[in-house]
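Before a colleague's protein record goes any further, I have to sign it off. Thanks in advance; the entry in question is below:
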Amino acid sequence: MTTPDQPRIDRAEEISRAWRREQPGLPVDSIGILTRIHHAAKLLADERRRTLTQIGMDAATLDLLSTLRRSGQPYRLSTRELATRCLITPGAVTQRVDRAQHEGFVRRLAADPGTRAVPVELTPEGHHAVENAVDGLLNYEQGLIEVLSPQDQQELGRLLAVLVQDLNDRAHHHT
């Protein structure tokens, strides 16, 4: 543990220095980026989990309700569309919808004639719950990035988008 007058140890820099010392010539620039991204992701996931607990909603339910809310009027999507937009399996959608329906946040509608697509619709209770949850979460998370100037926030977002796009392209190329 560091005291206020001690400098904080940057794990990524510490790891990079150690590898430069132990294996000169080893490419270590990725450590400074990817180790920090991994560390930030863990810390942010922990923060999100704590915040959602305080809000009283789990991440899976928030994802489902947010996806429906962002879809626009009439806040209704088929289970297939939900699976695609939430990046989950149809089985996972069924579980999420079951939980959210039990809470009164969504309702299943009858499938259109000639189709097996089951529409899922946000209820007024679900609409209210998701708006409150998103408001609390996004306001809290905005505070987490305010250490960066608005310009730095924009630039970091842009750079991460480039990295994520390339990683997605690589993943699809390997499948």
